[in-house]
Design brief:
Elements lengths: L15 E5 L3 H13 L3 E5 L2 H11 L3 E5 L4 H4 L8 H10 L8 E5 L3 H11 L3 E4 L4 H12 L11
Parallel strand pairs: 1-2, 1-3, 3-4, 4-5
């Protein structure tokens, strides 16, 4: 019996995605969408937790928001934003080569080139096109791109 495109091969565990975003709604929605596509999902609401989880869990991919509110962004004296987090991840041996996709509600003209130059492999504007995001994740992680569900 064939498996769905996002399903892990028999005996293997699903690819793991770390989502770092201060919005609990975004974390919940992305968690549901990614799990339904066959991925394991880990979430963090700030940069310090994201770095710590990345080191412990060694995700296959990181989805990363650009900005965090001041009360979240100053954890441990560090002004966390996507660029600081990317710099940390790129220097952290356990995850130095993990692909990072940046997501933001901010102005793409202001952030896209900078995010890609910092090491992100893709950039998505909120509100997210979940089908396109899942397709991009499949391409990055080497899985087949799922076909869109057919309408009856």
């Amino acid at each position: 019996m064939p498996t769905s495109p996002a399903s892990p091969a028999a005996g293997s565990s699903p690819k793991k995605i770390l989502v770092v975003d201060d919005s609990l709604v975004i974390l919940k929605v992305l968690g549901i969408k990614l799990k339904s596509a066959g991925y394991a999902v880990i979430t963090a609401t700030d940069g310090a937790s994201g770095i710590s989880l990345a080191r412990q869990e060694r995700p296959d991919l990181v989805l990363l928001d650009i900005s965090f509110p001041p009360d979240v962004a100053h954890g441990g004296g560090v002004r966390w934003d996507a660029f600081t987090i990317i710099a940390w991840l790129k220097r952290t041996e356990e995850v130095t080569n993990v692909p990072i996709i940046v997501i933001t509600a901010g102005d793409p003209a202001k952030f896209k080139d900078r995010a890609l130059a910092a090491g992100a492999v893709a950039f998505f504007q909120k509100p997210l096109d979940h089908d396109q995001l899942i397709s991009t994740i499949h391409q990055i992680l080497g899985g087949p791109t799922p076909t869109a569900p057919q309408s009856a």
